Amino acid sequence: MTLETMRPDPVFDAESYGDTVETLAQFDDLTYIVWGGDWCGDCRKQLPEFGAALDAAGISDDRIEEIPVEKLDDGSKEGPKVEKYGIEYIPTVVVLQDGEEVARFVEEEPVPIAVYLADEIRAYFDEN
Fold first, then answer.
1. 3-class SS of residue 102
2. Which long-range CB contacts under 8 A does 108-111 form with residues at least 24 apart?
3. What is the pLDDT of residues 23-80, one digit of tens each?
4. How many folded domains does the chain comprise?
5. How many helices (H) and strands (E) does the chain have?
6. Partner of 126 at 20 to 30 A CA spacing, among 27, 103, 107, 116?
């Protein structure tokens, strides 16, 4: 595990997120790239629950790429694939299918990361 903040939250209640976990589990050809920093308050707050949701959905480690990011003095982010994916804020999670972006979570939404991405994934596949 590259990011300690992705260690699954032990008090995560998968039953409370049944639809979300089912959606994440349903699409077994998706991969998740997670940019974060163990130093980042937003990441420490949000990523453990996301890690637990992925775990509950049975997403294997080979489908999750965790990328640690450093914050430079000017506030910009530095790390692998930051420029390629235009990462400005963390946590950011990009969901891919065969290299094509399906969904993206950036920093904060009114719902947890897993719920947001599950909604985006369903919407993407409903449209395509």
1. strand
2. 108/42, 108/46
3. 999 999 999 999 999 999 999 999 999 999 999 999 999 999 999 999 989 988 999 9
4. 1
5. 4, 6
6. 107
The pLDDT tens digits of the residues spanning 67-92 come to: 999 998 998 899 999 999 999 999 99
Whole-Å CA distances, 126 to 14, 20, 35, 58: 24, 16, 27, 23
Domain interval for residue 48: 4-9+18-127
**Interhelix angle 41-56/113-127, nearest 10 degrees:** 60
Q: What would you measure as the largest C-alpha separation in the chain, in angstroms?
A: 42
CATH number at residue 55: 3.40.30.10
Q: Is the pTM of this model over 0.85?
A: yes
Q: Is 73 helix (H, G, I), strand (E, B) or coil?
A: coil
Contacts of 46 (CB under 8 A, 6+ apart): 91, 108, 112, 113
Structure tokens at 30: 């998706």
- C-alpha distances (whole Å) from 80 to each of 34, 83, 127 are 11, 8, 31
- The amino acid present at 77, given as its one-letter code, is K
